[in-house]
Design a protein that fits this description.
This protein is an alpha/beta fold and about 500 residues long. It is built from 19 helices and 14 strands. The strands form 3 sheets. The protein has a 6-stranded mixed β-sheet. The chain has a 5-stranded mixed β-sheet with strand order 4-3-2-13-14, covered by helices on one side. A 3-stranded mixed β-sheet has the order 7-9-8. A hairpin with a 6-residue loop joins strand 8 and strand 9.
């Protein structure tokens, strides 16, 4: 009798777990990914606590893996997909999900191995073959590019001849004045972009070369001084959402000598107006070099640009040469800014080790692609967590850091608090770690799917108390996000 009762309990647990999984599937279909993850986790926990597992237990982990990918938690997605494969080595969806995570992390060779497993098992599956073929093309392309690259070749910036570029008679867009950006140029540029026009390549190249020349002279950590009665604005990720960028300027005013801004990384990718965003921001940087600041984000990198659309967009609107020039410019973007020596602003977060000082940040060599570990990696990729201490990153890169880590860092460096971006937040911002760690995200309804608000922060020099302004997404022309992304991204999204 007791054995029968235990069996009934086990069956009840499995039935309940299945219901939780189905509810998670409903949330996933409705793009409520955080809720989906929560219900998948509850279902998994119920199954793990039972001695009897459902026959499709691997699917629980594979489904949660896909949900994690949708929230860009690729480290968690990778772990869940691997667990699904361990539970059932013949469960092909597990290999699909792991390949997705690997692709998102730029680990293309590893993704190819998983796609190969699927193709061998399902040789007539068109979807599997298409993904395998596209991934294989990418791996071969990268190998070819590496093979032909030569260390001592001239940089792209050294090979560009602007003087040989002619302005066509029918060009009606903005023009530089004596090769310089003016306020009139910026207003005309914004108008042109709003109407889906294009900046002439001669002026586009001139802006990039001038920005590169300026950034090369800047330190890795830039110190900003705000007067006691001066307002200063910090914005987070824009991600190619140009019309939402214009909305920020509508709400808060155009950048000027009396209206300074800091944009905190991830200006491009995913949104399909990234070219418009970056030239607008670089234009204001040249116009107000001491009042307009830009930090590097994790998406100002070759791997991210190749996957998530910026490289493809630049090639479509301009050329391969310009895409390569952008890489050189991004390498010189500062990694952090310190306001009045009291507030540190960087894109990602804090570090995988203790006792990091502002001097350590100043000494980082930044003219390179982001490494997969170390201080530069952490500054571009890390995220806060509620629990104390540190944990492996949910993204698979960087680290997660707790309130005690933040407290120690700000005390060691005599800071009031830190500002970072890098994460979608429902309200557009979040105050964590006893308000010592503030997140600001400025791309509302991220990728036209997330439904989040955007936000920016305004500070006054005297007290530096953050004031949050939130806003919703504005309409944009019918160009979908990720339009220029690598074909594999659209295959697995």
């Amino acid at each position: 009798m007791n054995g029968e009762c235990k069996l009934d309990y086990r069956e009840a647990d499995i039935t309940h777990a299945e219901r939780l999984k189905e509810e998670a599937n409903v949330h996933f279909s409705a793009k409520r990914y955080a809720d989906a993850i929560d219900f998948y986790s509850k279902a998994i926990a119920m199954c793990e606590s039972s001695s009897t597992k459902p026959h499709n237990f691997a699917a629980y982990y594979a489904n949660r893996s896909f949900a994690h990918s949708k929230t860009e938690a690729y480290g968690y997605a990778l772990a869940d997909a691997t667990k699904a494969i361990q539970l059932d080595p013949k469960y092909l969806k597990g290999y699909y999900r792991r390949a997705t995570a690997y692709m998102s992390l730029g680990k293309f060779k590893e993704a190819l191995k998983d796609y190969e497993v699927v193709v061998k098992a399902l040789p007539n599956d068109k979807d599997a073959n298409r993904k395998y073929t596209e991934c294989n093309k990418l791996v071969k392309r990268l190998a070819f590019e590496k093979a032909i690259s030569v260390e001592d070749t001239k940089s792209v910036s050294e090979q560009i001849d602007i003087e040989s570029m002619n302005i066509e008679n029918d060009y009606s867009g903005p023009c530089l004045t004596d090769g310089k950006v003016t306020l009139e140029f910026m207003k005309e540029l914004i108008k042109t972009y709003r109407e889906q026009g294009k900046l002439h390549k001669k002026y586009a190249y001139k802006i990039l070369l001038d920005v590169k020349k300026y950034l090369e002279k800047q330190p890795t950590l830039v110190h900003i001084n705000i007067k006691s009665d001066e307002k200063f604005t910090v914005c987070g990720d824009i991600h190619g959402q140009f019309y939402d960028l214009l909305n920020i300027f509508e709400l808060n005013g155009l950048p000027s000598d009396t209206n300074p801004y800091l944009f905190n990384g991830d200006f491009v990718d995913r949104g399909s107006f990234s070219v418009e965003c970056i030239f607008t921001l670089f234009g204001f940087k040249l116009l107000f070099p001491d009042k307009f600041f830009m930090s590097r984000g994790n998406h100002e990198s070759v791997t991210m640009n190749r996957m998530y659309g910026f490289e493809g967009e630049v090639k479509s609107k301009y050329s391969v040469e310009m895409a390569n020039l952008f890489t050189e410019v991004y390498n010189w973007l500062p990694l952090a800014h310190c306001i009045n020596r009291r507030v540190l602003v960087m894109h990602g977060g804090l570090f995988s080790k203790d006792n990091v000082t502002l001097k350590d940040i100043e000494n980082i060599y930044r003219n390179r692609q982001p490494p997969e570990e170390g201080l530069m990696c952490d500054m571009l990729w890390s995220d806060p967590q509620d629990a104390p201490g540190r944990s492996p990153s949910k993204r698979g890169v960087g680290v997660q850091f707790g309130p005690d880590v933040t407290k120690s860092f700000v005390e060691l460096n005599n800071l009031d608090y830190i500002i970072r971006s890098h994460e979608v937040k429902a309200k557009g911002y979040e105050e964590a770690h006893d308000s010592k760690c503030i997140t600001v995200f400025s791309a509302p309804n991220y990728c036209d799917t997330m439904g989040n608000k955007g936000a920016f922060i305004t500070l006054e020099g005297k007290c530096l108390k953050p004031k949050f302004t939130t806003y919703t997404a504005v309409s944009h022309p019918p160009v979908k996000p990720l339009m220029y992304a690598n074909s594999l991204v659209n295959l697995f999204c």
